[in-house]
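User: I'm putting together notes for a lab meeting next week and I want to include a structural view of one of the chains we've been expressing. I don't have a solved structure, so I'd like a prediction I can at least talk through. The sequence is below, exactly as it appears in our construct file.
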Amino acid sequence: MRSGFVALVGAGPGHVDYLTLAGLKALQNADVILYDALLSADFRALFPKKAKALYVGKRCGRHALAQQQINALIVSHAQKGRFVVRLKGGDPFIFGRGAEEVEALREAGVEYRVIPGVSALNGIAAGFTLPLTLRTGSNEFRAIQGHHLPEDPQWWQDLARYRGTVAIFMGLEKLQGTLEKLLEHGRDPASPLALIESADDGSSHAFQTTIQSILALGYQRVGQGPVIIYLGDNVRFMDAKSQSFTNLFQEAPHVLAAHIH
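Assistant: Thanks for the context. Below is the predicted structure for the 261-residue chain, given as structure tokens.
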């Protein structure tokens, strides 16, 4: 039996337009595709008819399969000589648990390749003209996850004093406590804050505010999609009206045609 192969493909932040050419080529040659939640239905149109497509997505509190089961599925199909594509939202190595899947492949002796994707970190921000770095503003950034934040007061003091852009993944559930901790350790209540929520269809919604306003008024979710929280002066630069590829292609074809020809 021929040896199988696995491609861990970053699909980008939800919409098919963000998939790279390398990712598309991998999909077109796949025998088996294990795909995530948070990907629009348009991705299914790219799956070859010969490929076996398996949904293994995780949403908050709702997991189709545990991570160990996903690892076992990837390895099992590869060991049967198949070309397996593990299609992951965003980038496999940015809060994507790609390293855990690579560890399972290494232990099983399965060949693999990681195909990076546009991370939600910068892909979602760019859709609303929110620069993570700005030469005349905050010229660095930091990404953290909001599920399990440290208790160490020094860690909180450092974060409160940090003047780069802070992106908080998976932080909505504990948002109030996180912001209160930042204020407790010296953060300015007027610090700019943005919450960008992604929907299943690949669209996004942005809410531009400040720490003090969000603590006073709260945040009303648009749907059930993931939310990334951006904190820092660069938030002032953003445009809360989405400028996604989808809007451009659908709403201004004559502009595109003029540039192409």
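A couple of points you could mention at the meeting. The domain at 5-118 is CATH 3.40.1010.10 (Cobalt-precorrin-4 Transmethylase; domain 1). The chain has a mean pLDDT of 90.

User: Perfect, that's what I needed.
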